Amino acid sequence: MGVASAQGADYEDAYKRLATEDGSDSTPFFGQYQAGIATPAQTAAAFVSFDVTAGDRRELTDLFRTLTERAAFLTKGGGPPLPRPGKSPEHRHLLGATVVPDDLTVTVALGASLFDGRYGLAPRKPAQLETMRAFDHDDLDPKITHGDLLVQLCANHRDTVGNALLDFANQTRGGMRLRWRIDSFRFPPRPVGIPRDWMGFKDGIANPDTTNASQMNQAVWVQPGRPEPAWTAGGTYQVLRIIRMHLEKWDTVPVAQQERIFGRRKISGAPLYATDPNASDELDPVYTNDPQGRLTPLNCHIRLANPQTPQTAATSTILRRSFQYDQSPDEGGNPNMGHTFCCFQQQLNTYIAMQTRLENEMLASYITPIGGGYFFALPGVRNARDYYASGLLHGLPT
Predict the structure, then answer these.
(1) Neighbours of 231 (CB within 10 A)
(2) Distance CA 245, CA 257 (A)
């Protein structure tokens, strides 16, 4: 099975699970890697950024232990455990008398700001982790950018995501404070396969095969060894970009030109050389016979993202796990709708190099990145005795 067909099958399976309205399906929490990365994307999501307010390293450790306990419970479901000392008992019942797991995944990532002087973590900072700079066409709003901690919540239904967010906010009060959040969702695949974005194009066709350990080890999971600190093995760099789409402008562009801007057919998702509307999106773009970009423009989205040259081979593979958003219109009455772009990669520099190439893409005048950040998604919680960031904090005095 090819990468595109494997991804399409994952999406179709995810939507079939929505028929289980009781929310009894669960995604394992414990393991070498965090869920919510290689996991097939669910339909509802929230990306929630926090400022850590723990007073010292002991309180920081307690925060991560609390996050772990709550995530392990919420993703498994069942009767609520006894509350921690000083915490209120659960009585929300948003998901019923007992919590249903609903394929909830909780993915925790650290921002560069957590490695400042507050907790003495700077010597163990991931080697490439930095604060996201503004690219040429960005208009980053500080109110929805950066953060010490990013919690990605995904599930099959919106109420499950909301319940998890409220739970974390309640149970971690005093340890971290909500900075910003973006609620997101995925469309059902129409007619089949990969879901589309607000611009009407299939999103995330070219991805590593998440079931292929070799591909994931090469492109996504941080491997043991320098220059990365030892604790980072099994984690991955996460990029989140909140991208507003100027749909009122985009909708005036003829479909043929839209296809040249993206580099794919709008209906099928196939490369531009495939004219049949039923052509497979599994077909690979081929540029060797089109060096001047007469068929697939040199500055179209997919060709700049992956030019298929020896010079760019090392910076052309990321794992996309993106969603869409829809917020209130701006003061001028224009829709505020767009793309919650999320990707994971073994090296942050892979994304930065790719995005630097994309600064010259034709799509740039139809989108404006307005927020997000760079984060390091932690290695998995291996068992019930482990906790988030245990490798980072182990051996440090509390």
Answers:
(1) 19
(2) 17
Question: Cα–Cα distance between 362 and 307 in angstroms, integer?
Answer: 15
The length of the chain, given as a count of residues: 398
Alpha-carbon gap, residue 29 to 33, rounded angstroms: 9
Buried b (16+ CB within 10 A) or exposed e, 235-271: bbbbbbbbbbbbbeebeeeeeeebbbbbbbbbbbbbb
How far is 258 from 245, CA to CA, in rounded Å?
14
Q: Provide the phi-psi class of 11: left if phi over 0, else alpha when psi is between -120 and 50, else beta.
A: alpha
pLDDT of 345-358, one tens digit each? 999 999 999 999 99
CB 357 within 8 A of CB 295: no
Percent of the chain with pLDDT over 90: 81
Nearest alpha-carbon partner for 43 in 195, 207, 192: 195
3-class DSSP string for 199-210? CCCECCCCCCCC
How far apart are the C-alpha atoms of 240 and 237, rounded to whole Å?
10
Write the pLDDT tens digit of every residue in 96-144.
788 999 999 999 999 999 999 999 999 999 999 999 999 999 999 999 9
Q: Do 56 and 194 meet the contact criterion of CB atoms below 8 Å apart?
A: no
Q: Which amino acid is at 313?
A: A
- For residue 83 the two structure tokens come to 């509350």
Q: Do residues 345 and 235 lie in contact, with contact meaning Cβ atoms separated by under 8 Å?
A: no
Neighbouring CB atoms inside 10 A of 290's CB total: 16
Q: Whole-angstrom Cα distance, residue 184 to residue 326?
A: 8
Q: Which residues of 157-192 are buried (b: 16+ CB within 10 A; e: fewer)?
A: bebbbbbbbebbeebbeebbeebbbbbbbbeebeee
pLDDT, residue 313, reads: 92
The string of DSSP letters for 265-294 reads -TTT--BTT---TT--TTSPP--TT-TT-S
CA dist 201 → 240, 256, 309 (Å): 20, 13, 25
